[in-house]
Amino acid sequence: MEQEKIVVGLDIGTTKICAIVGRKNEFGKLEVLGMGKAESEGVVKGIVFNIDKTVFAIERAIKEAGDQAGIDIGVVNVGIAGQHIRSFIQHGGITRSAKEEEITVEDVERLTQDMYRMVVPPGSQIIHVMPQDYMVDYEDGIKEPVGMSGVRLEADFHIITAQTNAINNINKCIRRGGLEIDDLILEPLASSLAVLSDEEKEAGVCLIDIGGGTTDIAIFYDNIIRHTAVIPFGGNIVTNDIKQGLMVLPQQAEQLKTRFGKAIAEEASPNEIVSIPGIRNRAAKEISVKNLSNIIQARMEEVIEMAHSEIIGSGFENRLAGGIVITGGGSQLSNLKQLVEYMTGMDTRIGYPNEHLGKSKIESVKSPMYATAVGLVLSGFRSLDEREDRYKEAREVVRTAKGKRPTVTSRNFFNEILNKTKSLLIDDLDGKNDY
After folding, report:
1. Beta pairing partners, 180
2. What is the rounded radius of gyration, in angstroms, for the C-alpha atoms of the chain?
3. Would you list the DSSP string of 20-57?
4. How far apart are CA 109 and CA 87, in angstroms?
5. How many domains does the chain have?
6. In the listed set 351, 368, 400, which residue is the last one of a domain according to the structure?
7. How far is Cα 232 from Cα 158, in angstroms, rounded to an integer?
8. Where are the beta strands (DSSP E) in 40-190?
9. Taking Cα atoms as reference points, which of 274, 210, 197, 281 lies closest to residue 242?
10. Cβ neighbours around 46 below 10 Å, total
11. What is the C-alpha separation between 171 and 166, in angstroms, rounded?
12. Does residue 314 sit in helix, strand or coil?
């Protein structure tokens, strides 16, 4: 019996470290088997600053998720973010020797691998190379060059780099936690898998993932990622503003933000007052919800302006028919959707990671704050499927080379079933017409 495929996603965030264990059910939906989380004290703005504290939190989250799922976790898919992330477009090309032969998957792979060898600034490392549009013999706008004939194969690539030290620190934390990394994925790419539909990516959409320490941007158009960016502000800076502005404790500031705060101050009642317990028998402190919301709105406007600048700078502002999707823990702030629409003039919705989720005992996983962790699991399954496809293709090539009759691949097998079913239906209809 085929061993059950289980994937674990590990989101090392500024406010929390979250591990999710998932498997695919019979309908191809993600079923969450276990989830563990721990407070993140060693990460600041998406970057690991204290390895010991981060390792401790990873171990707690992994143990909780593993106990719920009833498995021992050894391999994880990890997300990476932080203001050190950079992206740019780079052109590359190769010259093929055989003009008559069709362009193969190997040719495309060779072109992509060449981009990983390009020179990047010292202290940086390429983590993703994503093709945009291909050119074959200087004819551009080609989405899929495999099967075409041509000598010169070129493409524009979206290159994403990260700081080498940041990657090394993540690797060190994972190893010390007794784990291995299967794949390192940019967090907005993971979130996009969880909350964006194929139609939105085709039409053009901007994902804004508001985390604790950073706000991640990913812009898609024609089903291709066109722009990524990381803004070094998130929900924590709003909490800090409330703490300083209203002179309350950090925990009280976070509770005020999540329970009573509004992103649009006009929506808050001027007569609504919240009472905060005093410290060490001091008198209770009364907080105006209107003042609280003014503090929140001022900071969120700044974050939205920076995100909007990234959209304008990408050159795709007027091509995003899908508008904006906001996700992450910060997206749950009351009236934030309306504020984003007001400031950008674009349709906006909140992205919940439930599009690919099946039935689950853990309902909290459907919250936007777990979009990245769910996306990391989905990314792991996508990588597994790609590896299986490559393995099957390689096995077919070997069998054919040995002179054996090649077996029918699953795709051809299903096509044959569909064709036979179609012919049976036609015959059946023809028989009914005879009566």
Report:
1. 75
2. 25
3. EEEEE-TTS-EEEEEEEEEE--SEETTEE--HHHHHHH
4. 21
5. 2
6. 351
7. 21
8. 43-44, 47-48, 75-80, 86-95, 124-136, 139-142, 152-163, 180-186
9. 274
10. 25
11. 9
12. helix
Residue 229 CB burial class (10 angstroms; 0-12, 13-18, ≥19): buried
Asked if 264 and 270 touch (Cβ cutoff 8 Å), the reply is no
Residues of 399-416 as b/e, b for ≥16 C-beta within 10 angstroms?
A: eeeeeeeeeeeeeeeeee
Query: 275: domain CATH number?
Result: 3.30.420.40
Domain boundary among 301, 328, 351: 351
Helix (H, G, I), strand (E, B) or coil at 160: strand
3-state secondary structure of 223: coil
Query: What does the block give as tokens for 77?
Result: 């898919």
Question: Could you tell me the residue range of the domain that residue 208 belongs to?
Answer: 198-351
Q: Are residues 209 and 155 in the same domain?
A: no
Residues 179, 156: Cα–Cα separation, whole Å: 35
Beta bridge partners of 357: 30
CA nearest to 234, candidates 124, 110, 331, 118: 331
Could you list the beta-strand ranges (E) of 195-277: 205-210, 215-221, 224-231, 273-276
Residue 383 covered by a domain: no
pTM for the model:
0.84
Q: What is the CATH number of the domain that holds 95?
A: 3.30.1490.110
398 sits in which H/E element: helix 371-401
Per-residue confidence of the chain (435 residues) as pLDDT tens digits?
A: 245 789 999 999 999 999 999 998 888 889 999 999 999 989 988 889 999 999 999 999 999 999 999 999 999 999 998 888 999 999 999 998 876 788 998 999 999 999 999 888 899 999 999 999 999 998 888 889 998 988 999 999 999 999 999 999 999 999 999 999 999 999 999 999 999 999 999 999 999 999 998 999 999 999 999 999 999 899 999 999 999 999 999 999 999 999 999 999 999 998 999 998 888 888 888 999 999 999 999 999 999 999 999 999 999 999 999 999 999 999 999 999 999 999 999 999 999 998 888 887 788 899 999 999 999 999 999 887 766 565 555 555 555 555 544 444 334 433 443 444 444 444 444 444 443
Do both 147 and 224 map to the same domain? no
The answer to whether 128 and 225 are in contact (CB under 8 A) is no
Query: Exposed, middle or buried by CB within 10 Å (0-12, 13-18, 19+), for 420?
Result: exposed
